[in-house]
Backbone:
């Protein structure tokens, strides 16, 4: 397999990868996808992966504002779970978002979870990849396109090479492996790209980061003329 990292650097560091599971309903088809993806990420030398299942994060419908945030350096939020959620997301160096397609987009709960990362800039300057799936032939591609747009606004770096799984209910064999070899190949490419971007951005963040654009623009407008 193509190696993304020079021999000398291998094993030098691993990135904390958060795999966010975007469907929460009983009988969800993501339970076909996530065991395989968990094995795949665990096998990749670049990552220390953790599954972050939105079922375990019953976030309230987003309702934050400057009054609930309080101190921007240590935000309080409207509910302790929102604070914990922001802290959890902040732990990641890289992300994979696993999403079904609901009405040509993502589940409302997943969008709510992304919106709830508010004022902490926890996704900022970190790469994010997507695994989409659907019952039909589209394989979640429209959900992935929407997520790429959404994550630009979080100042994350959405990557190009993702995994698309059509007809999800027949996409895995009895061992839980994908039936279509394209799925495996796409996952390897995605993980290698994510590892490359994660290493590059970790290095860049360690060298120093600009303050978030929105804060710099506010500061520029508030400065005496
Ligand atoms: C509310 C809702 C909307 C859906 N919209 C789409 C859609 O736009 N495109 C599509 O291909 N499948 C759509 N589906 C089918 C889902 O892709 C399929 O049910 C899949 O199993 C959902 O993932 P989950 O079971 O893990 O929640 C929709 C399903 C639901 C429940």
Residues:
């Amino acid at each position: 397999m193509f190696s993304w990292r020079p021999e000398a650097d291998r094993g030098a560091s691993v990135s904390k990868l958060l795999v966010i599971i975007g469907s929460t309903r009983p009988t969800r088809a993501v339970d076909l996808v996530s065991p395989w993806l968990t094995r795949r990420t665990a096998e990749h030398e670049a990552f220390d992966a953790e599954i972050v299942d939105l079922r375990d994060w019953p976030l309230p419908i987003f309702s934050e504002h400057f009054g609930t945030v309080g101190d921007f350096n240590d935000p309080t939020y409207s509910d302790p779970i929102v604070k914990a959620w922001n802290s959890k997301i902040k732990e990641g160096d890289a992300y994979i978002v696993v999403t079904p397609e609901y009405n040509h987009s993502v589940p409302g709960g997943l969008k709510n979870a992304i919106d709830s990362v508010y004022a902490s800039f926890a996704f900022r300057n970190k790469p994010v990849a997507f695994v989409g799936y659907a019952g039909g032939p589209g394989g979640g591609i429209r959900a992935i396109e929407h997520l790429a747009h959404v994550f630009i606004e979080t100042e994350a770096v959405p990557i190009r090479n993702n995994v698309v799984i059509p007809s999800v209910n027949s996409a895995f064999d009895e061992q839980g492996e994908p039936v279509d070899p394209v799925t495996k190949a796409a996952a390897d490419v995605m993980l290698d790209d994510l590892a490359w971007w994660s290493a590059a951005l970790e290095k860049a963040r360690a060298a120093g980061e600009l303050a978030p654009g929105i804060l710099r623009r506010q500061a520029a407008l508030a400065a005496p003329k």
